[in-house]
Amino acid sequence: MDKFVIKGGRRLSGEVVISGAKNAVVAILPAVILSDQPCIIDNVPDINDVRISLKILREIGAEVSRLDTCKYRIDPTTIKRFCVPYESAKKMRASYYFLGALLGKYNQARVSMPGGCPLGDRPIDQHLKAFSILGADYTLSQGMIDLKAQKLTGNQIFFDVVTVGATMNAMLAAVKAEGLTIIENAAKEPHIVDLANFLNSMGANIMGAGTDVIKIRGVEYLRGTEYSVVPDQIEAGTFMIAAAATKGDVLLKNIIPKHLESITKKLEKIGVNIESFDDSMRVWVEADAPLVKVNVKTSPHPGFPTDMQPQIATLLTLASGTSIVTESIWDKRFGYVDELRRMGADITVNGSVALIEGTGRLNGAPVKACDLRAGAALIIAGLAANGVTEIEDIFHIERGYDSMEIKLRQLGADIEKVAIPDEVQTNLERNNLSENAQAV
Ligand code: EPZ
Questions:
Q1: pTM for the whole thing?
Q2: For residue 439, what pLDDT is reported?
Q3: Residue 437 reports pLDDT greater than 60
Q4: DSSP state for residue 107 in the 8-state scheme
């Protein structure tokens, strides 16, 4: 196991190239299954969720070859199996996209219930509802979801909640279904649009992605394509906040400013300077400029993204005044707060609301990442803190950020990835077990 060791207090400056979007590519890779020819996918981030997705594609029989650092050729015509093994599927939430893709192509799928970040209740009732409306039967047994359909027929799907995953899965299952499918109350995130663009580049007929009504006319055949994944909105937002937290001056490259509007507006209210260009953005704060409190409420796109909530809460611990952060998507997304308190943050959490007393400073401490974006927030805290911060369980971070510590070092951060000797790791795990036992 590894940890990050960060010596804080250094201003970030320079240029960073943002990678392809995790939450787009984890849907696009399974979507290749729907093609009747090989596809080439470019701008693929080098993250663990991609490695798991490619491993699953190989396990079901697709031929996967790496053409370049971020470029893969995937031939789905050799797929022979429609079951995603538990060992692979349990490692990430997005394994459930193999349900929609396999069902859409072969009228059958068998995938383990998904894993992913512990953010509270993460049901998949809306996914199953969409599959049923299109004509599939499902059973749940031994932690596996089994889908079968005689044939899939276009229909009207109205989601009870705005759900990214179910919107993606409904698109995957509907692109080859006979007739017209209308998805209402659809999610509008940039990664939804990216999946629709990818499918349309193969010859699908999807209209309205990015709005709350998506119309899909089923097609018989989907040709091979070459497609580049959209830049990662959340990685970009994370670097914007890292620049602000260290009062740095950073140019983000390979971004789409439109996707960052809600983050940009909020950061400008805090006192961050932002200048947008076609595919880049400069983010800076003068060394003596104050950061001021704001209130943030997460909501589906185009609102402030829930995946940026831990990061902006961390920034607000450095601002003057009392900020209120309301999490409206997940019921357990404040797990990082205890870790920030170890660094001197003054945060009170009551249900879905965090009250942040900006103290203007954080102190380095040993902390632990509890999920992907919580880990990113702790990195930001360590960069801004006085002294040394050590972050354990960085595997959470490496699931969704490509070469984070390398990109930060290139911006002047003092951050190293350090291996934890096995005997120390064993003791840590033993201590955790005893702590948990005492906690009970
Ligand atoms: C996706 O998760 C992202 N993950 C999450 O990002 C992100 O936080 C979330 O969308 C919201 O934007 C991926 O794309 C792999 P949802 P997903 O379905 O699809 C409820 C990260 O940090 N719901 O939009 O699982 C659900 O409980 C990760 O990159 C149902 O009730 O989220 C939640 O309250 C963390 N029934 C709300 O909808 C369902 O069938 C939104 O969930 C599905 C969801």
A1: 0.95
A2: 41
A3: no
A4: S
Ligand 1: atom nearest CA of 26 is 15
Q: How far is the CA of 122 from the centre of ligand 1 (A)?
A: 7
Mean pLDDT of the chain: 94
CA distance 358 to 246: 15
Task: Calculate mean pLDDT across residues 11-26.
Answer: 98
Encoded amino acid at 189, one letter: E
Place of tokens 């996707």: 259
pLDDT at site 91: 81
Range list of β-strands (E), 173-279: 180-184, 205-207, 213-217, 226-228, 249-253, 273-276
CB atoms within 10 A of CB 65: 11
CA–centroid distance, 380 to ligand 1, in Å, is 24
The set of residues, in sequence order, having a beta carbon less than 8 Å from that of 240 and lying 6+ positions away, is 250, 252, 260, 263, 264, 267, 272, 274, 281, 283
Could you confirm whether 117 is annotated as catalytic? yes
For 375-400, the pLDDT digits (tens) are: 999 999 999 999 999 999 999 999 99
Q: Return the pLDDT at 436.
A: 53
Does 114 score more than 80 pLDDT? no
Q: Six-digit token pair at 134?
A: 């299109």
Helix (H, G, I), strand (E, B) or coil at 407: helix
Determine if residue 162 is left, alpha or beta; phi over 0 gives left, psi from -120 to 50 gives alpha, anything else beta: beta
Q: How confident is the model at residue 171 (pLDDT cuts 50, 70, 90)?
A: very high
Owner of token pair 């943002």: 18
Query: Ligand 1: which atom is nearest the Cα of residue 189?
Result: 12
Ligand 1 pocket check: which of 140, 161, 328 to mutate, most ligand atoms within 8 Å of Cβ?
Answer: 161
Query: How distant, in Å, are the alpha carbons of 235, 345, 347 from that of 307?
Result: 10, 20, 19
437 three-class SS:
helix
Instruction: Work out the number of other CB atoms within 10 angstroms of the CB of residue 414.
Output: 15
| Residue from 140, 329, 399 whose mutation best tests the ligand 1 pocket (most atoms within 8 A of CB) | 329
Residue 173's SS3 state is helix
